[in-house]
Amino acid sequence: MRDLLAGIVLLVCALMFVLATPGLDVMPDRTLASVRERNALGRHQPQWWVWFAVRAAEGNRGLRLPVTRALKVVERPLGLEQDWTAFSEPTRIVRRLEVAVDGDLVYRSGDSEYAWRRSTLRNRRVLPVVSDACQRRTEGHWLAAWLVALVRKDLPDARRVEIRCTRADFPGDESEPTLVLAAEAPAWQVQP
Amino acid sequence: MTARWWARWVASCLAPTDARVLAAVRIALCLVLALDILDVLRLGLVDSLLGDDAWPVVVGLLGALALAGLGVLPGPALVAAVVASAWLGAHFPAGDRAIDRLLRTAMLVVALGGSASRWSLVGRRRDAIPAWPTMLLAFLVALACLDAGVARLMDDPGWLGGRGEPAMYRLACDPLIGRLDPVAWQHRMPLFRVGGWLLVAFELGAPLLLTRWSRWWALFGVAVHLAAALVTDAGLMAWGMLALYPVFLAPWVLGQAGAAATTSEPATPPRDRAG
Q1: Is the CB of A5 less than 8 angstroms away from the CB of B14?
Q2: How far is B180 from chain A, CA to nearest CA, in Å?
Q3: Number of C-beta neighbours around residue B91 at 10 A
Q4: pLDDT tens, A67-77?
Q5: CA proximity to A111, closest of B235, B184, B83, B139
């Protein structure tokens, strides 16, 4: 019994390590699969590095990924599918979300002067939605429709809501809009 | 050789360890997760983010966390909390982050590890439990931190660079997640540069959490996570990680507290010598 328990603990540690193998967990399936891709790497990196990277990619494809795919059967129902790249790197671009009601700015990310529903929009479940929309990983329609509903609840006299994402190269620089969605009474249909 | 290694592994998995360590993790985990879901309730986000049908699950999750935190059937309660949390994550995938999944894994380990042995309302008191649950939690934290560091450097080697604006500055002053004013803090670049180096040093050195230096490295980690909580709106990402740190620090803190209690007790009077 003691050996069985210790064996299970060892197996769990090994599986955790396979799932999270540092460096490989962020490597896409087809990395360095083609000769062209390997040659391209060889033009910028020394041969020993190419050899190492190709072996790592092949090991990932042949050994690690089959195990991680098999484990998804257990991971998915319990929501354990781990993204091991937590604490990810912020973008180099300065992006902000802005909400304007009837032409007046009411919210701007990171600006205490325009702080309508700040706690809601900074909630850790909402932040990724804002971030995805402003980085154009999503179209932003769900976020816009949700914000419009919040504005109509808080400011029933509002006639027009505009949601903008802006970008600038450096804080304080002139920013330009990258996404503009608006909705107007009475239809409140979100449109670009 | 292999047999001796295996015997050592079995012995270390089953070595008796202070049951209060796992109990501290159980309570801390339940507390941070309950506060996280209470924040969702406070902001009225259940209907809009999670859906009308999420109410029973949210109430169930809070109930399970309360039971587990109090030590009433913590095993089944934590498993129920994992299932409820996974359900909520599946209903709003955008808000289900890496830290949610990490904490669900940790909850399963705590659920199976006999955490009700101490600091629980119900349950048979045991002062020592086998070490394997705390070993697994320590391994999980070390692996998560190491991976974060490797991914960070692969993503942007600029974390180690000495030129340009430091990555830590961009993180702390990013209007979407950071709390610091980018213009007001742009004259403190050396501070952010050193902060970035320290962060990467902690993450790449995370395997030290599995060695005899674990408590010192864990103190470093506590400082890193507290700094993240202060300068960003990362929320559960920082507090959730901190909830796992009793694994490294509780044995030390409890040991110090025990030693202090022993020395503060009145000394036993010496026995009279016969004759």
Answers
A1: yes
A2: 8
A3: 15
A4: 999 999 989 88
A5: B184
Test the A interface: residue of B35, B174, B202, B231 with most A CBs within 10 Å: B174
DSSP letters spanning A146-179: HHHHHHHHH-TT--EEEEEEEEESSTTSPPEEEE
Q: Rounded to whole angstroms, how far apart are CA atoms A13 and B21?
A: 20
Predicted ipTM beyond 0.85: yes
State how far the Cα of B28 lies from the Cα of B58, in Å rounded to an integer.
19
Q: What is the pLDDT of residues B33-66, one digit of tens each?
A: 999 999 999 999 999 888 889 999 999 999 999 9
Residue A177, CB-side half-sphere exposure with 13 Å CA sphere: 10
Whether chain B has a CB inside 8 Å of the CB on A80: the answer is yes
Tell me the three-class secondary structure of B99-167, residue by residue.
HHHHHHHHHHHHHHCCHHHCCCCCCCCCCEEECHHHHHHHHHHHHHHHHHHHHHHHHCHHHHCCCCCCH
Percent of chain B with pLDDT over 90: 63
Asked if A95 reaches chain B (Cβ–Cβ under 8 Å), the answer is yes
Which chain A residues are Cβ-neighbours of B140 within 8 angstroms?
Answer: 16
B233 contacts A85? CB cut-off 8 A: no
In 3-state terms, what secondary structure has residue A114? coil
Whether pLDDT at B196 is above 80: yes
Q: What is the pTM of this model?
A: 0.90
How far apart CA B193 and CA B185 sit, in angstroms, is 12
Which of B2, B58, B147 is the best mutation test for A, with the most CBs of A within 10 A?
A: B147
- Say yes or no for a CB contact (<8 Å) between A83 and B132: no
Q: Decide: B116 and B71 in contact? Cβ < 8 Å.
A: yes
Q: How far apart are CA A54 and CA B131, in angstroms?
A: 39
- Copy the structure tokens of residue A140: 């932003």
> For residue A180, what is the enclosing H or E element?
strand A176-184
CA of A132: which chain B residue's CA is closest? B94
